Every structure is written in structure tokens, then in C-alpha cells.
């Protein structure tokens, strides 16, 4: 592969949306940020230079980072932050992946404005496993706050109360439409008879989204940089951190068609429930033409979510086989919960916390990867529980003695061991859908169900042939999801809910994958410019 060099200057940029201006943190002054283009097998070197007063890190969400955990990016997990005035070169090779991913800041809530797409094209001379589109377009979905998002989250942490919800959703940076603020929304220009590949990225902070275009079905061909068996559907469901590539055939002769994103949340209110719309406009069509409308899914349209998710299967072709682990070395069950703990300085004397297996993760002040590599003691403990501390009816009435524990706990995996994790949603405080992201791996989503996972019955229904391969997966409200992967990537790997509010509350944990014995089975040494804590 080639070496691709990028420079990301992190700079403030005064930005006006919804009739209000604020300075935002950007890469190179752009919102959404620049797209990173490469081919499979290329090596990408991104020099990130921090010109703002915040500490910064960038995460390459979904990039495997084989042996290059030092370039993964989550603050205090794999590196110390890049301080104001400092720079760091992220250096990684794109191995075994092709499609769309995203990059985003991985510290506090900076990712609300610090994000962009990663496009990984197939190796030169290798075609897509679907008809070649005439054109490709990137569609980045986001959330916009009129207030400074760093203030929104720090006030929430201090008070123990939930953070303020966003003021709008955005399509490629356009909230829309807000005619009173002269914002018309995003326009996708198309020509009749052509087919477009839309690379859709959900970069929202806290909202899972539906995406649709009136009068046009979408053919899904890829999610999270893994090919899928193509299927046609009218509404896409996409969680924060997920990416979906679809073919859009511009089969109408002309006209304008509504493009809409709306949030999905099946139990709780307290999300930005505004629909953002844009326009798909055929060339030669006047803007004044009446736009064909679409029916927007209800906020709790679980059936729309499920019909999308249930259609996903990995392509599992000869060239792109699905190597699902069949024998399992580590069989883990993680409960996911949101609860309250006492807090004497908080407004109500309590604060919201979130936990996996009843442990709310505490961020260390030295990154775990350096502690692991240099054998520094006292940074973490390796006693993260592989199973819930007590069994109970997870989706029923929770026990009353469930006060959440705090800890910087990790779970260790031997190199190349096989892992199954059942992510079990619970109804402690509030049942919610948790889009869960694992760094450093693609995993197979082998099963899901409602209610409590039954280890005797449910595995019989697992799909071990062509389960979808992802890096971020929803755990249904009042239900569970099972994933499998092979721990073939040495290093320190974060697992967390990709609703940033839940991450902030502690819904996160860390795997350490030990080095193997072979010469190419161990973590490479840290780069010399690795930021210091
Ligand atoms: Cu996209 Cu750990 O995050």
C-alpha cells in the first residue's frame, strides 16, 4: 500500500447556526471535518496539531489498529491527551477493511464538532462486490447545540442532572430547515438515471437515527466497513458510531424529494426529537417544485428499527469470508445499566451513573496502555467481572441493593483467544437501547433477543454462518445482543456505549489483550512523540 499523509490542525472557528454564533473546535476550520481517503493496505499518517486551549485526542472509529494500539486515540485509555501547543502523529495501516468509517475526538464531548468520515477504497484493481455507482457522496449526520457542548457536559457532571438536549440534528452540517434563520437544509444533487453510493455516518452525540428519502428505496451494501448481502429498504436505522453504505438509484425523471433524519428512542424522552430534513434534487428541476414528502417513523418505531437490523447479513463470499469463532474461550455476560448514586455536592444529593456488570468505570490519570506496556502499578486492576455480581431478573423489577461500584477495572484476554459477550440490557432506572462500540476489532453479531438471555436455549438460534460484522451494535431495550470475536490484536481496547452521555456516566470498560509468542503477535513499541501525561 501507499503512505497517505494528512495534517489535522485543531483550531477554533466561529460558526453560525440556528440564528446564533459560537466558536467551535474544528479540524482545519471545517464542520464536519475533512474526509480521510485511503485504500485497503495503505498506511495513514495524520499529524494532529493542537492550536486550541482544550486537550485533544482523535479516534479512528472502527479502524482495526493491528498492533498499533498507540494510534487508537481514546484519552487516558491508549494515550495521554495532546495538550495545547503539542502535536502527535497517528500512524496506522488499514488491514482487511474497506468501506466507510469515521474519525472523532475521544475526550470529553469534543466529538460533537470534531468528527469526519474515513473512506477506505478497495485495493487498486479490486472492484466493489456490487454494481459500480456513477458517483459517491458522504452524508454525515450530527447534532447541534446552541450552547458550548463542553459547558453542557461539565455543568451536567457538576449538578448530577442529565445534560441539556441538542437544539437540532444536522445533515452534512446543515440543520434544516429553519427558514427564519435562513437555513434551508442540505441539498443532494442528482441526475436522473444515475446510481449513487451514499456513505452515511452517524456522528451524533446521543441520538440513534432513522434516515430516509421520499420515493426512493435504498440498497444496503456495507456497514461499519464490512460488506453485507445487498437488500433494499425504505428506512435506514443508524446508531452513533455506525456507518452504512447504500446505493441510491435516481430512477425518477425529475423533481425534488424530501430527505429526513429523525431520532429513535423506544422508552425514554429527553432526546432532541426534531426531524432534520434536506432535499434530493434532480438536475433540471426548479427548487420551487413541490417536494415529494415522506412519512417519518415515530420516535418509538421499534418495528422499523428491527426490520432494518434483521435484514443485515455479512456478504460471506469466497473473497470476503465470515470467519465466525465457533469454539469460545471466554463466555462473558455484561449487564448494562443506568442508575443513581449518592453525591453530596450534587443538586439533588444524587447523580446519574451508568455501569457494566455494576461497575462504573473511573478514568485513570495515566493511560492504561502505558501502564500495561511499562508495567506501571496502581493505574488499574484486572478484576473486571466477566459475569454479573448477582443474577436477577434483568428486564424485570431490579433488586433494591444495586448500588453501583466504581473502579478502573480491566478484563484480560490471552492472544488469539475467542470471546463471546452477551450484552444484557437492564431496567435499572430506565431501560434504554445502548449502541455499544468495541475498539480494535470487528465482531460478529450472532444473536439478539428480548427479555433475559438464556444460556441453555438462546445459543441454539445463533447465526454462525453469515452474521453481520460490525464495530458498534445496539443492545435492544429490555433485551440482549450476543457478539463474538477473536482477540488477535494485542493492546488495550475500550468497550463503551456510544451515547456520549452514558459514556460520561461510566458505561465503559477495558479489555487488555496480551502479546502472543510469535514475532508479529505483539504490540509495537510506543512512538517517540506519544504525548506525556
Ligand atoms: Cu467512536 Cu470509543 O468511540
From TrEMBL:
Entries under InterPro entries matching the protein: Cu-oxidase-like_N, Cu-oxidase_2nd, Cu-oxidase_C, Cu-oxidase_fam, Cu_oxidase_CS, Cu_oxidase_Cu_BS, Cupredoxin, CuRO_1_LCC
A Pfam family recorded for this sequence: Cu-oxidase
Domain Plastocyanin-like: 11-123, 136-284, 384-516
Protein name, per record: Laccase
Major localization listed first in the record, in broad terms: secreted
PANTHER family, sorted: LACCASE, MULTI-COPPER OXIDASE
Biological source species: Rhodamnia argentea
Gene that this polypeptide is encoded by: LOC115743659
Cofactor note: Binds 4 Cu cations per monomer.
Family matches, as NCBIfam families: laccase (TIGR03389)
GO molecular function, one term: hydroquinone:oxygen oxidoreductase activity
Role: Lignin degradation and detoxification of lignin-derived products.
Top-rank lineage group of the source organism: Eukaryota
Catalysed conversion reaction: 4 hydroquinone + O2 = 4 benzosemiquinone + 2 H2O
The keyword Nucleus is annotated on this UniProt entry: no
Any one of the GO BP annotations: lignin catabolic process
EC number, UniProt record: 1.10.3.2
